[in-house]
Amino acid sequence: MSATTAARKRSPASARATLPRIAPGVLLVLLALCGPFLSPHTIDTPVTGPYMAPGDGAPLGGDQLGRDVLSRLLHGGTALIGSALLVAVVVTLVATLLGCIAVLRPAVGRAVERTADVAILLPPILGIMLIALAWPGGGRWAVICAAIVLGIPYAVRIVASAAAPLAASGYVEAAWARGEGLTYIALRELLPNLRATILALFGLRFVEATYVISMAGFLQIGPQPPDPDWSLMVRENAPGILLNPWAVVAPSLAIALLAITVNLASTTLAPHFVRGTVTTS
After folding, report:
1. CB burial string 200-230: b at 16+ within 10 A, e below
2. Is 256 helix (H, G, I), strand (E, B) or coil?
3. What is the pLDDT of residues 220-278, one digit of tens each?
4. Is the pLDDT of residue 155 over 80?
5. Over residues 182-202, mean pLDDT
6. HSE-CB of 168 using CA atoms within 13 angstroms
7. At 116, is the secondary structure helix, strand, or coil?
8. Using an 8 Å Cβ cutoff, are 214 and 231 in contact?
9. Which of 49, 66, 151, 217 is deepest in the core (most CB within 10 A)?
10. Burial grade of 76 (CB within 10 A; 0-12, 13-18, 19 or more)
11. Residue 70 near residue 52 (C-beta atoms within 8 A)
12. pLDDT surpasses 70 at 279
């Protein structure tokens, strides 16, 4: 694999055009990760009355126990981002490995495809409940494992579909003819041409993991009170939404913006991996 001359000439201008599109996602992630250091109050100390409107000392008002909504919001993103990132990385890596093997080894591919078809039929919410409730003690790790198990089958199908035309291409056949092994062909011939697909897949898996973990938190399957989890904040403060809407609206917007901006950043970067490289036999 080598970078084309045209791609190298376009790279500075391309980078300047891409930066504004990915900046919101990067800034939001950094803000969420640094939130605990910016919090004006502790997460478990009441500073105002229950469901009090925004005022002095509580810019977003109080929650159902009078705790500062802003402080809990700033603390609630770290665990969610870490969990979603772990799910996205594991699912993408496993799916990439299985997808490449599936197209290079037809017998394995048929088995993987049939297994994925069956797993995809399982409703996500049912799968989460079965895995999380069967996990000893439940909690966030149970939800993470459920999200990984449920995300791999669909991701494998995407990678295998993108890799299938490459596996039948001339340079892969030439590599087989030279006596190259499975590992070499997967790493040197397939993966470099799948980078855009893998990056886009990572963004989609991050978004799905964010929503799956948030949904589990809303159902109280994963994180439990008094954790400052964004989805838990929505559930706990829903009864007082008319008194202090920010206690529900703020964490809801945070979840949505996190998913949208990260996915936008990944889809913005993906095409550059196609334009920046060409395959050489």
Report:
1. bbbbbbbbbbbbbbbbbbbeebbbeeebbbb
2. helix
3. 777 777 788 888 888 888 888 899 999 999 998 888 888 888 777 777 766 555 444 44
4. yes
5. 79
6. 6
7. helix
8. yes
9. 217
10. buried
11. no
12. no
Buried b vs exposed e over 81-99: b needs ≥16 C-beta within 10 Å? bebbbebbebbbebbbebb
Residue 249 is predicted with a pLDDT of 92
DSSP designation for 158: H
8 Å CB contact between 96 and 194: yes
Q: And the tokens for 153?
A: 């089958």
Residue 252 near residue 215, CB atoms below 8 Å = no
| Res 112 pLDDT > 70 | yes
pLDDT at 209: 87
- The beta-strand segments (E) located in the chain are none
* CA neighbor of 227 nearest in space, from 73, 87, 88: 73
Are 233 and 74 within 8 A, CB to CB? no
Angle made by CA atoms 43, 45, 50, in degrees to the nearest 5: 100
CA nearest to 42, candidates 226, 169, 223, 166: 226
